[in-house]
Write a structure and sequence with these properties.
Strand order of the largest sheet: 3-4-5-6-7-8-11-12
Radius of gyration: 20 Å
Strand content: 15-25%
Order of helices and strands: HEEEHEHEHHEHEHEHEEHEHHEH
CATH superfamily: NADP-dependent oxidoreductase domain
Shape: globular
Number of helices: 12
Helix content: 25-40%
Number of strands: 12
Structural class: alpha/beta
Distance between the termini: 20 Å
Number of domains: 1
CATH architecture: Alpha-Beta Barrel
CATH class: Alpha Beta
């Protein structure tokens, strides 16, 4: 088969926004160019738009708010795009917005140099936490003054909408976050936009009130899809989809999908969820937390039934699973050189997971992680 050539490098001056979004045709082109280097199941389908993504994605959560970490992330993300990683995940609150900006610089370089075309790459980000800007405030008082000045005084958020001192999913707030994320990333369109940890709201309001807030948020996000600011949306969670019904913080995926269907019927754009899944956090596989009709099933089964893509976060549990795994894991996952590879291989082995996110700003770790799926 003729090898698919690299995309030609369009003129894209630094600092300008990149037009377009991930497409079926573009992501298929990326697969054709890189598939021969990886296991046959490395690339997988994602969302109703029939996109294809790498089953190892790159996360950008950890790190300091420093120029050194900015440069490391920019270099590693760019190399990842050149090496077979076609899904990059970030959030506006990661590293005081610096992670989004590093991803934006890497993608700009990739498009400018012909490393990857915009329509080949799926960029995901999140909104829900009030983001700091560049560096954290030195004191709680400075933080509150920042929130008052940037969000309350401008009307972007109201104090009664904010939970736990910094979490908000009010439509006007999320709309402002979408625009800021687009600017940080340098993109006309964000491919996947998540409401970040909506279960946080349940610290202060009832599940019924959360349903109403999510209805308003989803209505705004459907509008953002219609205007082309985002491609699809979903919810990125920590505990919500792993908590059992009736326990604090539980989210019901069928209810989330129902909210979207109430707004737009089968034409809704609610397409993906993100949750932790790793060797230590296996609830998504083994614990029935989701009601489907008369049955309670694990979230992976529910998502498959409802047609929602699943992105696994914390595949290495923030590095805790990269070393010192027990011998039983070595026996169950043979053929790998490192524990990090074994941990990634476990998550990637689950066919209902579209992509396993691995946070890294190290070129060396990127090579190690991708070896978990390289063709022998």
């Amino acid at each position: 088969m003729t090898k698919t050539p690299r995309p030609s490098a369009p003129s894209h001056p630094p600092g300008t926004t990149i037009a377009g979004r991930a497409t079926d045709k573009g992501t298929s082109r990326y697969v054709e160019r890189h598939a021969s280097h990886f296991a046959t199941d490395y690339f997988r389908s994602f969302t109703a738009n029939r996109l294809h993504v790498s089953s190892i994605g790159l996360g950008t959560y950890l790190g300091e708010c420093s120029g050194d970490d900015d440069r490391d992330y920019t270099e590693t993300v760019h190399l990842a795009l050149a090496s077979g990683v076609s899904l990059v995940d970030t959030a506006i609150n990661y590293r005081c917005q610096r992670s989004e900006r590093a991803v934006g610089r890497a993608l700009s370089r990739a498009v400018r140099e012909g490393t990857a075309a915009r329509d080949e790459i799926v960029i995901c980000t999140k909104g829900g936490y009030i983001p700091l800007d560049d560096v954290p405030p030195a004191t709680r008082e400075e933080y509150q003054a920042y929130v008052d000045r940037e969000y309350f005084a401008t009307g972007i958020a109201q104090p009664e909408d904010v939970v736990a001192g910094g979490h908000c999913i009010a439509p006007r707030f999320l709309a402002a976050q979408v625009e800021r994320s687009r600017a940080n990333l340098g993109l006309d369109t964000i491919d996947v936009y998540y409401v970040h940890n909506p279960e946080q709201q349940l610290d202060a309001i009832t599940p019924a009130q959360l349903g109403m807030r999510l209805h308003a948020a989803f209505e705004m996000l459907e509008h953002q899809c219609d205007t082309g600011a985002i491609g699809v949306y979903g919810c990125a969670t920590w505990n919500g989809l792993r908590a059992t019904p009736g326990t604090r913080g539980h989210l019901d995926l069928a209810e989330l999908v129902s909210i979207a269907r109430d707004l737009c019927g089968d034409r809704h754009h609610f397409a993906a969820v993100q949750l932790p899944l790793n060797l230590a956090c296996t609830e998504a596989v083994r614990l029935p937390t989701q009601q489907l009709g008369n049955h309670t099933v694990p979230i992976l089964e529910a998502a498959a039934e409802l047609g929602i893509a699943v992105i696994a976060s914390a595949s290495l549990l923030q590095g805790k699973l990269a070393h010192h795994l027990p011998a039983t894991v070595h026996e169950a996952l043979p053929g790998f050189a490192t524990d990090a590879q074994r941990a990634i291989a476990f998550v990637r082995s689950l066919p209902m997971v579209a992509s396993a996110l691995v946070g890294t700003k190290s070129v060396r770790h990127l090579h190690e992680n991708l070896a978990a799926a390289r063709r022998a």
